[in-house]
Amino acid sequence: MIQLFKLKKNGETATKGTTKRSSAAQLRITKDINELNLPKTCTTKFDDPDDLLNFKITIAPDEGFYRGGKFTFSFRVGPNYPHEPPKVKCETPVYHPNIDLEGNVCLNILREDWKPVLTINSIVYGLQYLFLEPNPEDPLNKEAAEVLQSNKRIFEQNVQKAMRGGYVGSVYFDRCLK
Amino acid sequence: MSAEGIRSRQFSCLRKILERAGPVCHPDFEPSAEILNFISNDCKVLVIGAGGLGCELLKNLGLMGFRDIHVIDMDTIDLSNLNRQFLFRRKDIGKPKAEVAAEFINKRISGCNVKPHFCKIQDFDEDFYRQFSIVICGLDSIIARRWINAMLVSLLVYEEDILDQTSLIPLIDGGTEGFKGNARIILPGMTACIECTLDLFPPQVTYPLCTIASTPRLPEHCIEYVKLLQWPKENPFECSIDGDDPSHIGWIYEKSLERAACFSIRGVTYRLVQGVVKNIIPAVASTNAVIAATCVTEAFKLASSCCSTLNNYMVFNNVDGVYTYTYEAEKKDDCFVCSPFFRVKYMDLPHDGMKLNEFIEFLSGLQYQMKNPGIVAAFAERNRTLYMSGVPSIEEMTRDNLKKSLKELNIINGTKLIVTDVTRPTPLEIVIRFSEINN
Amino acid sequence: MDSNSPKSPEQSEKTKKYDRQLRLWGDHGQFALETAHVCLINATGLGTEILKSIILPGIGSFTVIDGGKVREDDISVNFFLDENDIGKSKAEAVTRFLLELNPDVHGDFIDESLQRIIENNPSFFNSFNVVVGTALSELEIILLSSKLWELKVPLLICRSYGFIGMARLQIKEHTIVESHPDNQNTSYRLLNPFPELKTYLESFDLDSLELKDLAHVPFVVILYKYLQEYRKLFGRIPKTYKEKETLRDLIRKGMKKDENGLPSAEENFEEAIKAVNYVLTSDEVPKEIVKLLTDDNCVNLTTKSTSFWIMANALKYFVEKEGYLPVRGVLPDMTAETKHYVKLQQIYRSQALRDSESVYRRVQQLLQQLNQSADSISEADVKEFCKFSHDLRIVRSSCISHEYLEKPFNSSYIVSNLDDPDSSMEYYVILRSIERFYSEYKEYPGNLDDHVEPDIVKLKACVSKLLSEIGSNSIIKDDLIHEFCRYGGVELHSVSSFLGGCIAQEVIKLLTHQFIPINNTIIYNAVSSDIVTFCL
């Protein structure tokens, strides 16, 4: 047992040599970033290499419906990382059943299934998977999901149309081909 | 009668416990009048949070003989606090919690000196925290818990890897939710810390975004839809949601009702909307009393050594009868905050003319055997990323640093570096010391 | 409030103030609190801590009984006293400070001893919903316990003694409709669906559904289908672990395969597999409820029967007729498309309504037979009763004075617990012995520094005497007796505060008839920070 009474009664407290520590969130993100091991389809972009809490990751799928496109996601890591997941938004307008037109992304590990053991790397793999296997069963963009379910060919054409830049229905998409 | 005379009688109950020996007392316990003197005069306690737990903590400390108490709270008093935060009255609404609480205690318990701080814990530095003998938290924020935990760990002093116990400040932490609560003792560097057991904090309730967007079933799904998707899109008040603004809650309530009606979902109520938007955690006076009392009993044991302390985690629940369970939360070997791997280490380098790439070679050498270390310098103002080979965009932007000397990179005696590498479970924090400085 | 703000339901000041607790016990629980009157005997530190945690949430009114004057010692353990009160009436002093806690609460005090009140005004306690006594002497406990047992007023006696705390509940009978279990029981009725449910469940043809539609079928539909298939194959429902595994395999086989021939991990199928065990037993009437329905008070109604038992009797009639408890009508969330979920919810809800109407009709008949007014039990009461019928509870305790006065009826329970060195029953025996000690010597053992040693001998004698009355051969360690003498009868504020929180919550449970009270004695040990419960 620690004997506070004996230790502190003389008011002597060791003060020498302590250095301010970095926050646990800061340390953890530094480690996460240094150990990023991304597939070749992904690139990172740091506006400021000193700020590891805010950055962008671009995914350029090399197979599937979205081959040839380039999609940028913004990552914002908060002070409660990794207890809370980072906030991720898709900055490229995309015709996708699991990403809505405001850039919200429906990926389980970004919300309900997040755990502190997961890393930025796990999220990037999750995002990449969304482009390979868009999931029409649990859509955010209902129209896109319905088209994917009823006619894959039309869906593919719509994706192409959107990536080339243009309207799908009444919605305009910016060009995002490589 | 002198003021001192009144005080010395006041604690006759504590004196019996502290000045009488007994066969089942802790073997380290040496009863004497000195102990109460220590508690009253030398044992400085910091209470973080002057809310439901905080009010109780201050009262309990004052009546258990502690007199030198500080309290920090950044909040002001709200009407919904009055069902449990018993140091506050209607007339106090809007005033700082810490100030009102301190004034009340000082008035009611003569001799007690509570010093309030109406600010964030992050506003104080090491020197402030170092003055306390015990820190007790009554917080609802995980971020604040993690912060104070890391702060207390960083105050530890090691000599040749042996902890200098005079640098240790025990942290006692309480938390409640409805009729459930928990209390724990953390001896920084010695027992499991907040970061070791981050998993114990329940994650906030969240629902899959796609359920919210396409297959809502519960009233909560409808409210989350308005909060997460509809609000940012329509931005009705040109600002983000303020849960305390009735017009905001009113808007969300109406839109949630509309959405629920579309899907024939029942059960959207104003109270539920408030609860979901503000993430309200139910709270009652009784649970706060129980948990705060446990915290102060443990503080009293720590300060007096009169019996062994909680080892080290207690959960409480009184929905069905009254139930407690105590167990020892385990220290994590690779804890980011308190693991010995991770203690701030000193690294002696020959001279500050050393180039960054030479330094990296040194880290890759026999002593450290790192693969591709990422290096960040923690300067007081902000961190600076010196080099990271693994991330192409950063590598490119920091490549020029490789040829610079440490001196050119503003690294001086005492600069702290954060070094991460795949070979280490946790980042390494090192303080650089140069044997020689080139002028 | 901002005049431009959209109209939202008017929230009263009171709802705002009590918001954090209304989320736990509801407006009806709050109403029960606000109409209750609680009595505290002895304004100890423990006593005022208990009152604090029931005044803050808004108890209707309280009365403090204490014939003593404030001494200096009292001030250091009682937050509701200060220096200026020394020499004044303790009851009056604490009442003044306690009333400041909540302007909604009424409070008064009686500056008289308990004994005199019981002697002069035998029906005094009739008007209270709960009576709490702290630091009572043995004689007071006996007097109060017999009186309140006779009046059927719930009594909590409690004591804070050094590092040890004790509380005991005496209540003839306490009935609970809303017990708030951690896991609310939902009976899905898949083994024997009522007609509307059966029609709905069978309206699905899972085999013809496309993957996307299949993935949004509620798991109950899936589980029902494979249960039927299992029955067809084996002629009965699965009972053993192995049989349940067979059912789970059937469900797994029903999952659609993806391009690679692997079963696609559909959450609703997973939910169906997980629910197998639960669904197969959840339709049974729980043992606790069977016991309750065969209780004398349920079976033999009289003109004095309470609403609870009249409804229980009607429930019993329903269960005998239908073979099930009423459907709860609340459906937990599950993976499903909105329209399926809403429809299913509606089916369960309508059945719940039909079931509770049926119970209500029976209740009306019973009220007539018992010559009670038809509106003494409302349809809403019956609806609630049916909704929570899986989790109804009763608590009945023993009468404390019976244990104190006669050869204890529960002595074998105490004896067997004393034989177990980990049971903490010895703390109970010592606390009882201390009550004796106080009656005999008019002070607590070890009150004065130079009395500690001699008092150990005296307290040991009290302990031995009590043990022999109970019929126990156990020996209580001298060290433990010494420890209690060391305390010298002091109250430690943080120990009282812990206990005060616990007991306040017990009072709230008794008043709201929600949550489950202790049955019936707890010992709190602040050294080990644990609580044990004894059913004395």
Automatic annotation (TrEMBL), chain A:
Superkingdom of the organism of origin: Eukaryota
Pathway: Protein modification; protein neddylation
Pfam families: UQ_con (PF00179)
Catalytic activity: [E1 NEDD8-activating enzyme]-S-[NEDD8 protein]-yl-L-cysteine + [E2 NEDD8-conjugating enzyme]-L-cysteine = [E1 NEDD8-activating enzyme]-L-cysteine + [E2 NEDD8-conjugating enzyme]-S-[NEDD8-protein]-yl-L-cysteine
Membrane-spanning parts: none
E.C. number: 2.3.2.34
A GO term for molecular function: NEDD8 conjugating enzyme activity
Domain UBC core positions: 24-168
Keyword Nucleotide-binding on entry: yes
Alphabetic keyword roster: ATP-binding, Nucleotide-binding, Transferase, Ubl conjugation pathway
Catalytic residues identified in the record: 106
Transferase as UniProt keyword: yes
Similarity comment: Belongs to the ubiquitin-conjugating enzyme family.
Name listed for the protein in its UniProt record: E2 NEDD8-conjugating enzyme
From TrEMBL, chain B:
InterPro entries: E2-binding, ThiF/MoeB/HesA, ThiF_NAD_FAD-bd, Ub_act_enz_dom_a_sf, Uba3_N, Ubiquitin-activating_enz, UBQ-activ_enz_E1_Cys_AS
Keyword Membrane tagged: no
UniProt domain E2 binding: residue ranges: 347-435
Keywords linked to the UniProt accession: ATP-binding, Ligase, Nucleotide-binding, Ubl conjugation pathway
Cleavable signal peptide: none
Enzyme class, broadest EC rank: ligase
Pathway as given in its UniProt record: Protein modification; protein neddylation
UniProt function note: Catalytic subunit of the dimeric E1 enzyme, which activates NEDD8.
Name of the protein this chain belongs to: NEDD8-activating enzyme E1 catalytic subunit
Organism: Parthenolecanium corni
Automatic annotation (TrEMBL), chain C:
A Pfam short name: ThiF
Gene3D superfamilies reported in the protein's UniProt record: NAD(P)-binding Rossmann-like Domain (3.40.50.720)
Protein name: NEDD8-activating enzyme E1 regulatory subunit
Residues covered by the THIF-type NAD/FAD binding fold domain: 18-529
Coiled coil: 353-380
Provenance organism: Parthenolecanium corni
UniProt keyword annotation of Transmembrane helix present: no
GO cellular component, one term: cytoplasm
InterPro entries with a match to the protein in the record: APP-BP1 (IPR030667), ThiF/MoeB/HesA (IPR045886), ThiF_NAD_FAD-bd (IPR000594), Ubiquitin-activating_enz (IPR035985)
Pathway named in the protein's UniProt entry: Protein modification; protein neddylation
GO molecular function, one term: NEDD8 activating enzyme activity
Taxonomic superkingdom: Eukaryota
